[in-house]
Amino acid sequence: MLTPIIAGLIAGLVVYLLSTFVKDQPEQIGTLHYVTYGPALKILSAAFFPISAFITYAALQASPDQVVLAAIIASLVWLGTLYVAYDFFFVRLSYDDEFIYHWTPIKRSRKIPWSAVKGVQYASFKQVFNLKTERYGTISVSPYADGCRALVEYAANLLGVDVPVSDTESGHDSDIDPDADPDL
Predict the structure, then answer these.
(1) How many domains does the chain have?
(2) Domain holding 149: CATH number?
(3) Neighbouring residues of 101: CB distance < 8 A, sequence distance ≥ 6
(4) pTM of the full structure
(5) Are residues 50 and 119 in the same domain?
(6) Considering 25, 60, 90, which residue would you say is the last residue of a domain?
């Protein structure tokens, strides 16, 4: 009966410990600032694969009346595992004084001028910071990425707006868009 509570407390402790390893400042090589995930998060991401395999094994052992639910749960766990690994290992984000350099296996390389950035906000549902751009889409940056805070502060300073904060920092949703209607 206490197992879910204990599991939740352990998960909360793991997230807290991982967040203490996040660096506010990005790694800088030359003029480029690299926003990356640290080794602790990459190890956690790699650990999701055997956990997902175990959950799949458990789903295969489900009774016939539970097999559909077990398959759905195992599939969702695998989707989450693959998404986290994709983001942690394959997405690249860096910036300098003139451009944001964003690379993903799907969108490939994008070189976005800072003049195209039109807003910066924290999206509480996805728990990411978003840089809204003109003609380049949205760039999402996790607060768990090393250097995220510096990137968000730099973007906010360029736009002349307050730095958005996450829900945990402020207690409410932060949505700063200089072109938004102030009456909304």
Answers:
(1) 2
(2) 2.30.29
(3) 32, 92, 93, 94, 95, 109, 110, 111, 112
(4) 0.77
(5) no
(6) 90
Q: Whose structure tokens read 């077990």?
A: 70
Q: Are residues 105 and 76 in the same domain?
A: no
What is the rounded radius of gyration, in angstroms, for the C-alpha atoms of the chain? 19
30 located within any domain: no
86-143: pLDDT as tens digits: 999 999 999 999 999 999 998 889 999 999 999 999 988 888 999 999 999 899 999 9
Q: What is the DSSP string of 65-102?
A: TTHHHHHHHHHHHHHHHHHHHHHHHH-EEEE-SSEEEE
- N residues, the chain: 184
Contact status, residue 166 vs residue 174, Cβ threshold 8 Å: yes
